[in-house]
Amino acid sequence: MFMGEYQHSIDAKGRMIVPAKFRESLGEHFVITRGLDQCIFGYPMDEWRKLEDKLKDLPMTKKDARAFARFFFSGATEVEVDKQGRINIPSTLIGYANLEKECVILGVSSKIEIWAKESWQQYFEQSAESFDEIAENLIGFDF
């Protein structure tokens, strides 16, 4: 399980250090793709395969299912962690998530998320204002 928030930077070549606490669970190779809310999702290979199986079960006769599968799979790429603990993020994903210099890497249960620092701060502030309401709307969830 991934949890926590870490700040790292991305260099001009698109390389970013993966937090040491995440590296073992992610493995030497893992998949990154476009996520929701303009961030990048990162999945260990076993979690990626589970997600891939779920997406394969979507009814491709439905326009929304086709659109989501295209969005998700077209941005996916397998990355390798180098000896310095870095991955190389493709320019298409850097552009999608508006990554510039400062990044925030989040552990979110079975995946990681990579955010532009400013985007994360804005999202967090907006969500924090309605956190109580969001929690109330999650049926059957108790802390």
TrEMBL record:
The segment(s) forming the SpoVT-AbrB domain are 5-47, 76-119
Query: What is the designated name of this protein?
Result: Transcriptional regulator MraZ
Grouped into one coarse class, the protein's main location is cytoplasm
Subunit info here reads:
Forms oligomers.
Q: Which GO terms describe its molecular function?
A: DNA-binding transcription factor activity; transcription cis-regulatory region binding
From which source organism is this entry?
A: Solibacillus silvestris (strain StLB046)
One of the protein's GO biological processes: negative regulation of DNA-templated transcription initiation
Localization in the cell: Cytoplasm, Nucleoid
GO CC term (a single one): nucleoid
**UniProt superkingdom:** Bacteria
Taxonomy of origin reads: Bacteria, Bacillati, Bacillota, Bacilli, Bacillales
Q: Does the keyword Transcription regulation apply?
A: yes
What SUPFAM superfamilies does the record tag this protein with?
Answer: AbrB/MazE/MraZ-like
